[in-house]
Each structure stands twice: as structure tokens, then as C-alpha cells.
Specification:
- By secondary structure, this protein is α/β, with parallel strands linked by helices.
- Helix content is 29%, strand content 22%.
- The protein has a six-stranded mixed β-sheet, covered by helices on one side. Strands 5-6-7-10-12-11 form a six-stranded mixed β-sheet, with no helix packed on it.
Length: 422
Amino acid sequence: MKILHLSDIHIGSGFCHGRVNSLTGLNTRLEDFVKTLSLCIDRALNDHVDLVLFGGDAFPNATPAPYVQEAFAHQFRRLVDADIPTVLLVGNHDQHSQGLGGASLNIYRTLAVPGFVVGDTLTTHRISTRNGDIQIITLPWLTRSTLMTRQETQGSSLAEVNQLLTERLQVVIEGEIRRLDSSIPTVLLAHLMADNATLGAERLLAVGKGFTLPLSLLTRSCFDYVALGHVHKHQNLNKSNDPPVIYPGSIERVDFSEEKEDKGYVMIELEKGKVNWEFCPLPVRIFRTIEVDLSKHDDPQAALLTGIAKYDIQDNVVRLIYKLRSDQLDLIDNSSLHNALKSAHSYTIQAELVSQLAKPRIPELSTSSSIDPMSALKTYLNNREDLKDIAPFMLEAAQNLLTDDQEIINYKIPNFVNKSGI
């Protein structure tokens, strides 16, 4: 059977990187997310898949705006019309107050949407498809309070609590495994943080709320495929593919932490004891960071415009970061920067002042070097372009100070000593 596995749609996120479309009244980033989701659904329909698995995190939170919910529902309704069974797993962003008070996706079960299964509990679902039956064990996002009471965790370290939680979860999963029908394919669909996953933007999204699970809990021989959600970077955690343990990643870039990540979904061909899978990249909007250090340039404005011109920023989400000295601030023409960036979809400009104290030390002036005061000052001034106009006056003043000090040493101090009778 053919299966499409996608996750972490987060539709309604990243509005700060878009603008209002004057024709639709919608944020252009919402339109990006809808377009990308529609490409996933198009593939499911065109390839006549037997099943769609969604790994959780439909929205940025459990109470999305009605027009965001409508955009999500409109795309998944196409699967209902095509009679394609769909499993919607509940992720941490789908849960109200991290597990208290239901989940945003539960409405699809309440309305009894044909062919839709909502996975908000750890249980096994037997689903009939055009090419036979399949078992899906749903493991939604779990918090510590889901498996243990406050009294049970009191006085234990974080490591001890995680160990207890893993052991308790292992017992529950073992119970589901023992009830499986060994004659049909089995998929574990889970929204979790695996211990060897490479993290991205989600690394701060659930701090203190969930817990990390060992890969050994997922690589069971009874699973033909492990479909994961939560981590936004696509990766296969089990290179031996027995079974594949796959994060498809998010389908759109949420922020600049995902600038260099490919986005997409996974297509699977599955039968009992055999699986082939393929990551399918999506053509998502480019995020581009442009960094320019102006602190050593005589013409910072020209250097900045040259740095921007190196990139094709047409329709990109751009972040311009430039570093400069405080005395260069008045040399930057902001109107020229806005003009240079106008072809971008959206952009932000961030200026960072370079501290003169943060400059690398001059080797000749290290504590291990022996150098007279005037030579030391000359070396220092030779490395300070911003002081070159007043350097001669500083050297003259320093020479006068040193001359005065020498006179004090030769005359004033001996006179004082003699008068003291010492």
C-alpha cells in the first residue's frame, strides 16, 4: 500500500515574515503554508495513496483563528472526498494547556468526519484501505503528568523521572504490541523527542513539558515503519531501516533557524515485512541571511550595498545584519538600504555596533613583550585607523608627559628625599 507521511504543518505561523495580501486580506505567509499543504494533498490524490499519516502540530497553538482552521480543513476535506483514510495525531501544539482540556484536532472526531482517525491516546487503530488492512499505533505528545503524579516524581532528579517515565511508557507500548495482528503491516505514529534526533526550531518549544525517549523504544521488530512528528528537520534515526524511524520535518520554514533545512514529506510503499520510503522536497519560500562586516571599510555604505547585491533576493524572506563602528553610523543611508531590499518578499535590518574593546590584541603589546612606552603607543596608533588624524598630536603629548616624568624622577624626588633627612 502507498502511504503519505507529513507532519508539523504549523499553519498560521510566521506572520511576522509576511505581509497582507491586498487582494485576499490574508497574510502572505498563511498563503505560503496553504500552498505547501495543498501540494502534499495533491500528491496524495494524484498517486492514489491508500492512507495519509499526519504526525501532529497542525497549528501554532490549540486555539487557532477560525480562518486558519478553515484553511486547514479545506485541504484535508479533499482527502475525505477522495475516500482516503487519514490519521491525525495530536502534537504538543495541538493540545490545550499541554494536555489539559482537549485538542484542536478533536473536532474532526466530534463531527465524525468519514475516514478520519484522531490519535489523542496511546492505542491501536485497525484501518481498512483499498489495498488491505493496516494497524496504526498512535502515540500522541505525552507530558510527565500524563504518566505520573506529582507525588511519584517528588524528590527525584530529572534523569530519574525520565527513566521512570520511559519504563512506564514501555509497559504500555508492550501491551499494545501483544494485541497486534502479526499478519498485517504495523506503523507506529508518534509525536515525540527521540534521544538522538538533530533538533531545530522546536528545541525550545516544549522545554520542561515533555521528555526524551530512547531510540530503542521505537526500533521494535513488530513495526514495519515508525512515523514521527515534532522535530522540524527531516531525518532517519535508524540507518539500518529495520524499521525506518523517520521525521519528515515540517512542511514550511517557521523562522530563520530553519533557513538551511529542506522541507517536505515522505512517500512510503509498505507491505508486511517490507518497506520503501522516499523524502519528497517541497518548493518553499527561501529564507536568506545577509551578514556584512563594515567595521574595516572606509566606505561602509558602498560595502553594504555590494554585500546585498551578491544575492538574488527576489521574493525571499531576508534578514540583513551588518556590523559597524559607532563613528560609521552617520555614513549609512537607510533609504538606500530599503531600496536595495525592495525586491524581497519581506525583510528586516539589524545593525550591530562593534566594540573597540573587542578588537584582537596586538601581538607586540602582549604582556610577554618588552617594549618602551613610546614604541608601544606608536604600535597601538598604527593599528587604529580611526585615530590616524590625531596620532601626531597624541605622540607629541605623550613625549611631553614622559619628559616631565623624567624631570620629576631626576630632580624632584631626590630633593624631597634629601629634605626628609633620609
